[in-house]
Specification:
It is a single chain. By secondary structure, this protein is an alpha+beta fold. The chain folds into two domains: 162 residues, DNA mismatch repair MutH/Restriction endonuclease, type II (ECO RV Endonuclease, Chain A); 107 residues, Winged helix-like DNA-binding domain superfamily/Winged helix DNA-binding domain (Arc Repressor Mutant, subunit A, Orthogonal Bundle). Helix content is 40%, strand content 16%. The strands form two sheets. A five-stranded mixed beta sheet has the order 1-2-3-4-5, with helices on both faces. A two-stranded antiparallel ribbon has the order 6-7. The longest helix has 19 residues. It is elongated and about 70 Å long.
Length: 282
């Protein structure tokens, strides 16, 4: 049985994959897949490990990742598997667990296998030829899908990049009591957003976070802009990447803002006020 060094097709594919920043590309694709499944702008959810997320939804991140990876890397879908690189058919598999379900049509073919560790927010990918001798579960499940033996993966799989951090949704930094206040029902958007910016100073807040906090509400971005004066009264400089002047000011404080990003920078008096009082009143 041929090892990776003797597998001509595998080496050709590695040459093609080496032309891309795989760690960065898969980070983007995974983040997009998670955001798609959580659908924060409609549901207000932001943590894939929350009890509000069904296990089936977590598992569906892998299915979505197949399409997001094709989009990010501009890989064209090609039969008989998912994509084709260097003229070689390749299956894209991913998991939020410990193994992958390899379908019968991908047995003995090359697979890019991505693993996401949600608890520590990391991911890693391998390129491996899924020889049937390296698969377990006998005949597999009812669909004939079988997992990859760990020893075989470690010995015959080629790591494409080391364990890489996934961006953490800023909302997961909130304490339980802070999250309750930010998502308090019956409170207006500006009040909730001001709480968000107050509890997460010096943290870049993306547009998607604003939409999640204001899930189902009208014109949340306009409401976010309307909080600037109230934030200033609390001694907080609230900057939005939509404006060049704000982006320049943010840069002078060490923050890089995209067009939809925000950052709250407390001034010295605000920091002193915060230390004097553990609670914020709205």
């Amino acid at each position: 049985m041929r090892g990776p060094a003797d597998d001509r097709e595998l080496q050709l594919v590695l040459g093609e994959l080496g032309k891309s920043d795989l760690a960065a590309g898969f980070t983007e694709a995974i983040r997009s897949s998670i955001d798609y499944v959580l659908d924060g702008a409609r549901t207000g959810r932001y943590d894939l490990l929350s009890k509000d997320v069904h296990p089936g939804e977590r598992a569906s991140v892998g299915a979505k990742l197949e399409y997001e990876a094709q989009r990010v890397f501009k890989w064209k879908k090609a039969k008989p598997l998912d994509i084709e690189l260097a003229g070689v058919p390749i299956d894209l598999k991913s998991t939020v667990g410990d193994n992958w379900a390899i379908p019968t049509e991908a047995h003995c073919h090359l697979c890019i296998c991505t693993q996401m560790r949600l608890k520590d927010n990391t991911h890693r990918s391998w390129l491996i030829r899924t020889h049937t001798a390296w698969l377990y579960r006998g005949k597999g499940n009812k669909d004939g899908k079988r997992g990859i033996a760990v020893d075989a993966r470690n010995q015959w799989g080629v790591p494409l990049y080391d364990w890489t951090p996934l961006p953490i949704n800023p909302l997961t930094r909130l304490t339980e009591s802070q999250a309750d206040e930010v998502f308090e029902l019956g409170r207006g958007q500006e009040v909730r957003l001001l709480r968000l910016f107050t509890y997460l100073p010096r943290v870049v807040i993306e547009r998607s976070v604003i939409l999640t906090v204001c899930a189902g509400r009208q014109d949340p971005l306009r409401r976010a802009r309307a909080t600037k004066d109230a934030a200033a009264e609390k001694g907080i400089l609230l900057l939005c990447g939509k404006w060049v002047s704000d982006r320049n000011t943010a840069a002078s404080h060490g923050f890089s803002l995209g067009p939809g990003d925000w950052v709250a920078i407390p001034n010295k008096s605000a920091v002193q006020e915060e230390s004097a009082s553990a609670e914020f009143l709205f």
